[in-house]
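Below is a filled-in request sheet from our internal design queue. Each sheet records the structural input a requester submitted and the sequence that came back. We keep these sheets so that new team members can see what a complete request looks like end to end.

REQUESTER: design group, bay 2
PRIORITY: normal
MODE: inverse folding
CHAIN LENGTH: 279
BACKBONE (tokenized):
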């Protein structure tokens, strides 16, 4: 593995990566931080790692050397076409540059610039009865990342991102997925395209809404379903509400006014798991 040493924070490459950190270029260029996420990204069929930046201290450790070798030799799949990670460029950087690039207070010695190949609705592969998580206008990157993580854990077939949702490739969102971003297909869709896709495949669209009458637990989620979660402030938008097959609510027994959207998503997605596996 050949690497280039960079010691100046004003290096043009470093300035470019800082701009990517501040405003990811959607899925075409985003920043991954830390050995765990970088390793998961390297193994994902949806990701191509373009640049790897690491400190001398990271490369001096056994685990660091192992990860750098893994990135060098791993082949990834992008849209069915094999792309060798040997195309990645490696850069040894100083600790002060790492702190400039990292989004955490205690960075772990490595960051990477990567690109992601979103799936198309027609490319989703179902493991059984279709099970989708839909994000409509989620604005907080931490909430969005957590929903992706829960969807992955619950075995959803894909996560669908609708217009108005914040960027899943925001550094905070990427970290909040804890790597699930690289496990579960991410699909971008317009409202009409999603509605048409669900109708042709017999998939029911359920929305959580405090005005709904039936409780979550009274709905049959063993059938093909897409569960949609709206923005933290206003809930699902009108464009999605008019396309929903049913509205459901999570009963609140205590005095809390509402649930955080990521918490609500966890309750709903795992109700699908409960009904399909334990009912």
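RETURNED SEQUENCE:
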């Amino acid at each position: 593995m050949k690497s280039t040493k960079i010691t100046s924070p004003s290096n043009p490459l470093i300035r470019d990566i800082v701009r990517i950190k501040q405003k990811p270029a959607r899925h075409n260029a985003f920043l991954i931080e830390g050995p765990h996420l970088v390793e998961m990204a390297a193994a994902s069929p949806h990701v191509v790692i373009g640049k790897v930046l690491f400190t001398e201290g990271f490369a001096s450790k056994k685990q660091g050397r192992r990860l750098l070798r893994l990135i060098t030799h791993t082949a990834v799949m992008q849209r069915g076409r094999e792309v060798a990670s040997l195309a990645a460029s490696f850069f040894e950087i100083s600790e002060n540059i790492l702190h400039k690039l990292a989004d955490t207070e205690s960075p772990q010695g490595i960051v990477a610039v990567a690109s992601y190949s979103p799936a198309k609705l027609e490319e989703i592969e179902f493991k059984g009865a279709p099970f989708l998580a839909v994000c409509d206008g989620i604005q907080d990157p931490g909430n969005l990342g957590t929903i992706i993580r829960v969807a992955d854990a619950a075995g959803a077939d894909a996560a669908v991102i609708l217009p108005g949702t914040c960027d899943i490739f925001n550094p905070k969102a990427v970290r909040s997925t804890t790597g699930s971003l690289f496990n579960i297909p991410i699909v971008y869709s317009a409202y009409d395209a999603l509605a048409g896709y669900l109708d042709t495949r017999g998939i029911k669209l359920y929305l959580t809404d405090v005005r709904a009458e039936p409780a979550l637990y009274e709905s049959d989620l063993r059938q093909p379903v897409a569960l949609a979660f709206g923005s933290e402030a206003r809930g699902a938008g009108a464009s999605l509400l008019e396309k929903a097959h049913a509205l459901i609510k999570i009963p609140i027994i205590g005095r809390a006014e509402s649930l955080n959207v990521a918490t609500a998503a966890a309750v709903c997605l795992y109700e699908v798991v409960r009904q399909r596996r334990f009912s």
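SHEET NOTES:
- DSSP finds ten helices and 13 strands in the chain.
- The two ends are 53 Å apart (CA to CA).
FILED BY: M.R.
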